[in-house]
Amino acid sequence: MALTRTQKFLAATSILALLTGCEETLSRYGEAGHAPDSEGWGSSVENNVGMMNGTQSYVVSLAERFNREVADTVNFAFNSAQLDADARTVLDRQAHFIRQFPEVRFRVYGHTDLVGSTAYNKGLGLRRAQAVVAYLATRGVSRSRLEAMVSYGETRPVVNTQDRERRNRRTVTEVSGFVEDAPLILNGKYAEVIAREYVRSATEMPPSSSSNGGGGGGS
Predict the structure, then answer these.
(1) Each residue of 125-178: pLDDT tens digit?
(2) How far apart are the C-alpha atoms of 100 and 172, rounded to whole Å?
(3) CATH number of the domain at 71-200, out of 3.10.580.10, 3.20.20.60, 3.30.450.40, 3.30.1330.60?
(4) Is 70 exceeded by the pLDDT of residue 99?
(5) Residue 6, SS3?
(6) pLDDT at res. 61
(7) Is 50 exposed, middle or buried (0-12, 13-18, 19+ CB in 10 A)?
(8) What value does the mean pLDDT take over residues 44-60?
(9) Which of 24, 179, 194, 203 has its CA 20 to 30 A from that of 39?
(10) Phi, psi of 105, rounded to the nearest 5 degrees
(11) Which part of the chain is the OmpA-like domain (predicted)?
């Protein structure tokens, strides 16, 4: 059947529109199979791409996240390895973070101020690190994931002073690597870890409410 002039015109117009669309697509994305630029990508996509092509280290990325979300340092009283209330609060948050990533190891470093002998302070720094590890273990973190505690003693002060300085009397918790024989999650499976914890948090029972309308005394 012969096409009318109107049909021919519409067909030609449609072809021109399709070609124009293709040109715009090519100018923006390149030929078929060409990797598009990362413009407009979400950070999670960029993160997984980085993991896949080796440009981003999972350990480094997790360490940066740990430092952003959780305080890595707790401080101590002079000549003490006892954890005070503030230290326990920080360690509770550390433990919550660490439990989310069973594939990863952490290491605790102990420090002291510059008062006292080098040998004594090295031992004191180690006792502080051990106290932190012991506390994290009570909060559900496996000791097998807390690598050998290290004491720097008085050799790495935050404030270089010979006087007593609380900021120097500290432990620092850091990401140190993967659990031995754990599968590396560098191949785009980072999202699986996040999804696993998201589902777990959504299915945990919330704490029971104490607002029952009664006014009775405490125990």
Answers:
(1) 999 999 999 999 999 999 988 986 889 999 999 998 899 999 999 999 998 877
(2) 19
(3) 3.30.1330.60
(4) yes
(5) helix
(6) 80
(7) middle
(8) 61
(9) 194
(10) -95, 155
(11) 62-179
How is the chain split into domains, by residue range? 71-200
**Beta strand extents in the chain (DSSP E only):** 73-75, 104-111, 146-153, 170-178
Residue 86, burial from CB neighbour count under 10 angstroms (0-12, 13-18, 19+): exposed
The secondary structure of 100-131 as a DSSP string is T-TTEEEEEEEE--SSS-HHHHHHHHHHHHHH
29: three-class secondary structure by DSSP: helix
104: amino acid identity, one letter: V
**Structure tokens of 183?**
């599968």
- Helix, strand, coil shares of the chain as percentages rounded to 5? 45, 15, 40
pLDDT at 176: 84
Q: CA-CA distance, 21 to 202, in Å (whole number)?
A: 45
